[in-house]
Design a protein that fits this description.
Elements (H helix, E strand, L loop, with lengths): L9 H11 L6 E5 L6 H10 L24 E6 L8 H11 L10 H11 L4 E6 L1 H6 L5 H12 L4 E6 L9 H4 L3 E6 L5 H11 L5 H11 L3 H15 L1
Parallel strand pairs: 1-4, 1-5, 2-3, 3-4
Length: 234
């Protein structure tokens, strides 16, 4: 939740920079297995421009200390029950953007408000996209409307998913506007070492090499190994 706790992903962030460093930010899909850090990346994007506490070398990955200032963000997690119905989801989006919320919020009224009032630097962060595709209430019309707003420069999207878009149900309806499909893998060795040294200066070189090897530089097992070793040192 705090950007100073975020490590690595410099290559991914560079690609996001080039996708966003335009008049209208381009839409991006982040693909990776469970526990690879997809939600952490969305949290970082959501919070980085407004944080007041960073590590000395942050932000990493974006040149010239560029930050997405002036961006408006909406957070959608399709595992949230509030996002399981179209009417409550659309109202939630408008509330996050501090826009008027009509008493009867259907796709037509939502689209009208978005077209009339949002800035072109409005980005919807969609987490756990598979859950959205599995929700029966999100029919083709919903995804077509999202595509329409994206293709006309009213909204941009960053979505997370376990699989490439071509393998997701209804993907052809929505993903035609996505120009960037970024795969989230393990951290690089240098990124993993930075995470380890931030946890503790007491790890020996042997311990560091062991944790790098056992974790494969994946963030979740790396953090668990760090936590276990720190508990032993207490």
């Amino acid at each position: 939740m705090q950007p100073y706790h975020f490590f690595g992903r410099e290559s991914i962030l560079q690609q996001i920079y080039w996708a966003w460093h335009k008049t209208v930010p381009e839409s991006i899909a982040i693909i990776g297995p469970k526990r690879s850090g997809k939600t952490s990346l969305l949290n970082y994007l959501y919070n980085i421009a407004h944080t007041t506490c960073l590590r000395p070398k942050q932000p990493q990955g974006w040149p010239d200390n560029w930050l997405p200032r002036g961006f408006n963000y909406v957070w959608m997690d399709f595992q949230d029950a509030n996002m399981s119905r179209i009417d409550t989801l659309l109202k939630d989006v408008l509330q996050q953007l501090k826009l008027e919320v009509p008493s009867s919020c259907d796709l037509a009224s939502f689209s009208r408000i978005i077209k009339q009032q949002v800035k072109p630097t409005t980005v919807i962060l969609m987490d756990n996209l598979e859950a959205g595709f599995r929700t029966a209430s999100f029919e083709v019309a919903f995804w077509e409307n999202m595509r329409f707003l994206g293709s006309h420069g009213k909204l941009s999207f960053v979505v997370t998913a376990l699989e490439p878009p071509a393998q997701l149900e209804q993907s052809s309806v929505f993903f035609s506007i996505f120009g960037h499909i970024l795969a989230l893998g393990a951290l690089t060795e240098s990124e993993a070492r930075e995470l380890l040294t931030s946890f503790s200066q007491t790890f020996s070189p042997t311990e560091i090499e062991f944790m790098l090897k056992e974790s494969g530089c994946w963030p979740e097992p790396l953090q668990k190994l760090c936590d276990t070793r720190l508990q032993q040192l207490m």
